[in-house]
Specification:
- By secondary structure, this protein is α+β, with helices and mostly antiparallel strands.
- The chain has 3 domains: 94 residues, Orthogonal Bundle (Helix Hairpins), CATH 1.10.287; 52 residues, SH3 type barrels, CATH 2.30.30.520; 91 residues, Alpha-Beta Plaits (2-Layer Sandwich), CATH 3.30.70.100.
- 48% of the residues lie in helices and 22% in strands.
- The chain has 8 helices and 9 strands.
- Strand 7 and strand 8 form a beta hairpin.
- Helix 2 packs antiparallel against helix 3 and helix 7 packs across helix 8.
- The longest helix is centred in the N-terminal third of the chain and has 31 residues.
- Belongs to the MscS (TC 1.A.23) family.
- It holds the Pfam family MS_channel_2nd.
- It is a multi-pass membrane protein.
- It is found in: Cell membrane.
- This is Mechanosensitive ion channel.
C-alpha cells in the first residue's frame, strides 16, 4: 500500500497545518493525561506504582494515537485500509494479552479494594494444596508471597480475585489453641486448675492482654481432665508465641504439682481413653 492509496492529491496548506496541529494537540493531551493518571493513582489508596505507571502509559499512547488518526483524517486519508489493519491488530492483541489484561484488571480491583496489603499473611489455594505466606509485592500481574519455609510464590491477580482468600492479618490478631491433659488427683480442683492455666498463659510474652486467654473443658474422665486453652497473638508471631505458651504453662503446672501434658492443638479434641498421662 503506497502513499497515493492513502492520501489524495491536491492537499492545501490548511489541511497540512490542521493535521500537524491535531498531532501536536494529541501529544500535549497525552502528556497531561499521563500526569493526571499518576496523580489520581497517588491519591487512590492501595494502587501500586507499577499499576499506576502501566495505566498512565496506556492512556498516553491511546490519546496520541487518536491525535494521529484525526491528523490523517484532515489530510483526507483513506481510513478503510487503516481501520482494517487496526481491527486485525486489536484482535491479535486481545488474544495475546487476554490473560495479562485479566490479571491487570484484577490487580486494580484488589489494590483499590485493599483486600490484601503488603506485610499481611494470607492463605490461598495452590497447585499442591493451601499456601500460607506474607505479601511482599503487589503488581499488575501477580501478588508475590514469601511462605514460612522460604519459598517465593507468584499468585496471579485473577486467581486471587476469583479464588478463596483467607487474610490472617486483617483483624490484627490471631487465635491459637492448645490441648492440656491434666491427671486428676484428690487434692486438685478443676476450677483452680483452670484459673492457674489462665494466669500462666496471660503472663506469656506475646499473648494479647486485650483478648484474655480462655480455657474450656473438652472432656472429663475418671483419670483426667482435658482442657482447651485459647490465646490471641500477633498474626505473624504464632509459632513463637505458641511455643512459649506451651513451655510456660507446663512449667507453671509442674511447679504447682500438677501432672499435665501441654501441646499445640492440631485438630478436634482427642478421644478419651483409659490410658494414663
Amino acid at each position: 500500500m503506497s502513499l497515493d492509496d492513502l492520501f489524495p492529491s491536491g492537499l492545501t496548506g490548511w489541511q497540512i497545518a490542521l493535521a500537524l496541529l491535531s498531532v501536536l494537540v494529541g501529544w500535549l493531551l497525552s502528556r497531561l493525561a499521563r500526569k493526571g493518571v499518576l496523580k489520581l493513582a497517588e491519591r487512590t489508596p492501595g494502587i501500586s506504582n507499577s499499576v499506576a505507571q502501566l495505566s498512565a502509559r496506556f492512556t498516553q499512547y491511546s490519546l496520541l494515537l487518536v491525535g494521529v488518526g484525526v491528523g490523517m483524517a484532515f489530510l483526507g486519508a483513506n481510513v478503510q485500509p487503516l481501520l482494517a489493519m487496526t481491527a486485525i491488530a486489536v484482535v491479535v492483541l486481545i488474544l495475546v494479552l487476554r490473560g495479562v489484561a485479566d490479571n491487570f484488571a484484577a490487580g486494580v480491583l484488589i489494590q483499590s479494594r485493599q483486600s490484601v496489603k503488603i506485610g499481611e499473611e494470607i492463605v490461598v489455594e495452590g497447585p499442591d494444596g493451601t499456601l500460607r505466606g506474607v505479601v511482599q509485592e503487589l503488581n499488575g500481574r501477580a501478588v508475590l508471597l514469601t511462605t514460612v519455609d522460604g519459598r517465593t510464590v507468584h499468585v496471579p491477580n485473577a486467581l486471587l480475585l476469583t479464588g478463596v482468600l483467607v487474610n490472617d492479618s486483617r483483624h490484627g490478631a490471631r487465635r491459637s489453641e492448645l490441648d492440656i491433659r491434666i491427671r486428676r488427683a484428690a487434692d486438685l480442683d478443676l476450677d483452680d486448675v483452670i484459673a492457674l492455666v489462665s494466669r500462666a498463659a496471660g503472663g506469656i510474652d506475646g499473648v494479647h492482654a486485650r483478648e484474655h486467654p480462655g480455657v474450656s473443658v473438652a472432656s472429663v474422665s475418671p483419670e483426667r481432665w482435658m482442657l482447651i486453652l485459647r490465646i490471641w497473638h500477633h498474626p505473624l508471631h504464632g509459632t513463637a508465641v505458641v511455643s512459649a505458651t506451651v513451655r510456660g504453662v507446663a512449667e507453671t503446672l509442674e511447679r504447682s504439682g500438677v501432672q499435665a501434658v501441654v501441646a499445640p492443638r492440631q485438630g478436634p479434641p482427642p478421644l478419651v481413653t483409659p490410658e494414663t498421662i
